[in-house]
Amino acid sequence: MNYTVSQNVTLTSVSCGVFEGLVKYVTLAEENPIPNGVLAGSVLRVPLKCACPESDDDAGVKFLVTYPFIKGDDTKKLSKKFNVSIEELWQENHLDSSPTVYPSTTVLVPLKEKPVINLSIPDSDPPMPQFLPMIPIERRTKSSQIKNLYTFGSVLVFCLILAILVACGLYIRTLKKFKNSNLHSSTRRISSLNSCSTPARSSTCLSPDLLIGIKYSLCTFTMEEIKIATKNLSESSKIINSVYKGTSKNGEVMIKEMRFEDTKQVIDLHSRINHVNIVKLHGVCYGEQDFSCSYLVFEYPLNGSLRDCLETSSAAFHWQWRTQVAFDIATGLHYLHYSVIPAYTHRNMNSKGIFLTSNWRAKITIFGNVKESRSLPCPQSWIAPEYIISGLVSEKVDIFAYGVVLFELISGKDAMDGDFIKESISFLGGGGIESGCFDQLRDLVDPCLKDDYSLAEALCLAILARSCVEDDPMHRPSMDDVLKILARMV
After folding, report:
1. What is the extent of the structural domain holding 425?
2. Residue 277, C-beta contacts closer than 8 angstroms, at least 6 positions apart
3. How many other CB atoms are there within 10 angstroms of residue 21's CB atom?
4. Are residues 407 and 270 in the same domain?
5. What is the b/e burial string over 253-273, where b = at least 16 CB atoms within 10 angstroms of the residue's CB?
6. Of 104, 137, 410, 430, which is the most buried if we count CB atoms within 10 A?
7. Are residues 329 and 448 in the same domain?
């Protein structure tokens, strides 16, 4: 069939989005040898698998087209799309009249001519509201007694509203006094603690905004507690650079060492973040004798980092968990890009900074966009090119890093080994035959999975990863697009 493109898209989005997997990307690319993206107004040839009629004399039916229902479809709308009678549609699919059909249900459309689909069928008009019949009401003259009753009721309501407003004002005023007194007492207590170790700097160590964050959302830790938790900041407790794993009274925690002047930025950021797929900030600790560095205490998901799980637990890290992890990471990034005000770009996404809970759900660590953020643990060739060359920051930088993480989830290999990503990009470009493509895909998938994975899902995930690491940021998908694709797998 022919499909007219309404806007600039890629063959991947047409395959997975418009036709919902009924046609493979490789088959679509072979039928339409277009080197770059598809421009609006282009007409694509789309080969679709069709069923055959049971007999030649089956009411002149020559084709049975396989069609998946999409949101908003019904059998009446489908009959208009293919110009076929609704009764024939019901009869061919053994449906009752006016059946309830859910999205993604596949039906057979009986056609007497070559398939032509009209995608511009508007949604059915909403039913007209049924108004109750109007009954004329005889107006009665208001007596002076009724008028007096209305007047009395109005005065009574006004007095009640006035009393409520006065009570609210008094309550808010009392609450502000209570909060200010608590804040001042907390400020005096923290200042006195700091003056014990550095009396010369006790008046300039903490800002009021930071004190409010500590008072109402964070716990305070002493340097002695940090040393006990991390075995005196030993190398054996270190997870990655300047990040330690420790044990506190609340269980295992992750402790990040950073410069004092960057601490407020991270605390302010986490005060605006509340999401199940982002590691939570528990508390803060400041240095004993100087303020050159401080320590932030985060939760520690029990299964450790994604990189460690891929290296040590690949056999137990099943495919359905990997697709769930991919979805969780995308959900966290989508939250940062679209729900945080102002929007936040992570800039440092990698498998060592993603942690998994005991039930294999992913959480992203956020240590703030401080100066060390560009010291990423993967080769510069696998960081977004525009970020390396010009320092240009946008959500597309996170999309590129997400694509690298997807390749790691599929293959189990570390992004430090950049050769496997180069090979993946080459065979996913659509240049080879379909059978060779699947053989190379099997070579890419983590051998620890053996055959316990969906080849179709692996191909879709690999193509998605390939689109995320495009050199041109305008050709990369958004996290909104990524979520729409992954939502079909989990």
Report:
1. 306-486
2. 328, 329, 331, 332, 335, 361, 362, 363, 364
3. 14
4. no
5. bbbbbbeeebbbebbebbeeb
6. 410
7. yes
